[in-house]
Amino acid sequence: MQHILVIGANGKTGRIISKILRDSSDFKPYAMIRKDVQKPFFENLGIETRMGDLEEDFSDAFKGMDKVIFAAGSGGDTSDEKTLEVDYKGAKKAVELAEAHKLQKFVMLSSMGTDAPSRVEGLEHYLKSKKAADDFLRESKLVYTIVQPGGLTDEKGNERVEITKHLNKQGQIPREDVAKALVYALELERTKNTSFEMISGDKDLKGEMKNYK
């Protein structure tokens, strides 16, 4: 059974990821959290936790891990400084730690729009930080997958999607479907060392990822 560190586990998408991994026979999740008060949620689900803050030293969280899913994000409403600390510097440190601990794969939750951050008014700094983190991961020695979804919703997922390298249109997608894509990416060979955008559509999620070109 592979040990998976979930960074950003206490966020909306991170909690879904942790539950999916818990229910899998192939993976054991470890939720990285910043505060003790966040522990009970995961303990009640039977999920182990690791303490770690992206703005501090979180190297201990990587001990004994096989792969990592980075689902942390400051969101578009935080200050530019906070966004830089979490979305770029925090992700950069995570990549460096994953390399140091020789993890087998790094799966990154990014965002659509990183190819042209200046086109999305109000989110320029957020998307620039995400792009810098994505590029740092691409240039690392790690095996990786970068998932770049459209706007996230809290609707129930149905695993019906549209996936390609550049969609050239906007759209939304349930967090549940994005979480499943991140978990599928831990194993699927065709998504190795690549990135793709995704929104809701009419094609099967796992099938599209298995046959991704």
Characterise this structure.
Pfam families: NAD_binding_10 (PF13460). This is SDR family oxidoreductase. 46% of the residues are buried. α1 crosses α5 and α3 packs parallel to α4. The longest helix is centred in the middle third of the chain and has 21 residues. It is globular, with a radius of gyration of 16 Å. 32% of the residues lie in helices and 24% in strands. By secondary structure, it is an alpha/beta fold. It has a single domain, classed as Rossmann fold (3-Layer(aba) Sandwich), CATH 3.40.50.
Topology readout:
Blueprint: E1 2-7, H1 12-22, E2 27-33, H2 39-43, E3 48-51, E4 67-70, H3 80-100, E5 105-109, H4 124-138, E6 144-149, E7 151-153, E8 160-164, E9 172-174, H5 175-184, E10 194-200, E11 203-204, H6 205-210
Pfam family, one: NAD_binding_10
Protein name: SDR family oxidoreductase
Domain NAD(P)-binding: 8-187
Brief overview:
The chain is an alpha/beta fold and 213 residues long. It has helices spanning 12-22, 39-43, 80-100, 124-138, 175-184, 205-210, and strands at 2-7, 27-33, 48-51, 67-70, 105-109, 144-149, 151-153, 160-164, 172-174, 194-200, 203-204.
